[in-house]
Design a protein that fits this description.
The structure is a homodimer. Helices cover 32% and strands 19% of the residues of chain A. Strand 1 of chain A pairs parallel with strand 5 of chain B.
């Protein structure tokens, strides 16, 4: 069953098929089932299907070009006004849930880092109208996969310590 | 299949049964299958099964008492020396993978926040010998569940924005 976690790979190529509203709802339900400090849920999600907005997001930085082909982006935002300490950690837990759900549904997605790069946060904030103090942490590019990758772990014994460093 | 994500709940009560080495290996494989910026994998994991160390961790702060009953803790650490920008985000993605794997295997676990609380980071660093600049981000308390919780989402339409805020 853990295979479902190992099967999540970064998918950057998509078919033309749109992502259905049912799938968008399902991946957001998975995201919002993440744990959060004091259960404050300091997250917001902007689901972008508008072609012009996707193209503008894709022009933000050279490494985001796949957004120009993607039918969906989900921008994961954290709100320090809701949880000063854990707004970023909790939002990333929700993000990872969402990516696993994408894979489980037969969709494909890739995590594009935004925060803490001001030259990315600024344009994303402007394109989507994200208000202060909310921070766009990451952009997830999502679609129906047009590439296949094998499941894999990257298990490395050197990163594992037993009872002490 | 997304049900497996919704089924992950915070489990704070455990039976006396130890967590097997096979299960420890499996949850660490799941953790290390997470994506990371530039695939740098800036994470480390300290698997603690030593009773005395678990008890000392459990005495760090009043909200960590369940560690005194838990047969296993996994301390998730991030290394800014490996990824200056994404050490914390990538380590949290691995953490969330690990928590979902725990649930999938029929184990139970709960995320105990450590960073950015110096009064927690300091003792954890000292008890486990975590070297600078590595940061103990969170402690996961894990065991065989002695409590049951229903799957649930916390879906909130107010946190969802379509194409713009």
């Amino acid at each position: 069953m853990i295979d479902a976690i190992l099967a999540r790979r970064s998918i950057r190529k998509y078919t033309d098929e749109p992502v259905s509203d049912e799938h968008i709802r399902a991946i957001l339900e998975a995201a919002m089932s993440a744990p959060s400090g004091m259960n404050r849920k300091p997250w917001h999600f902007v689901a972008v299907t508008d072609r012009e907005k996707l193209d503008r997001l894709g022009a933000t930085t050279t490494s985001w070009g796949m957004l120009k082909e993607a039918p969906l982006a989900v921008v994961v935002c954290g709100d320090p006004g809701i949880s000063e300490k854990y707004w970023d950690q909790d939002s990333i837990a929700a993000l990872e849930n969402l990516l696993i759900a994408v894979s489980m549904l037969g969709l494909g997605g890739v995590w594009l880092g935004c925060h803490p790069n001001p030259e990315r946060v600024g344009p994303v904030r402007e394109i989507l109208g994200v208000p202060e103090p909310v921070v766009p942490i990451a952009v997830l590019s999502i679609g129906h996969p047009a590439e296949e990758k094998e499941p894999r772990t990257q298990y490395d014994e050197e990163r594992v310590h037993r009872n002490a460093w």
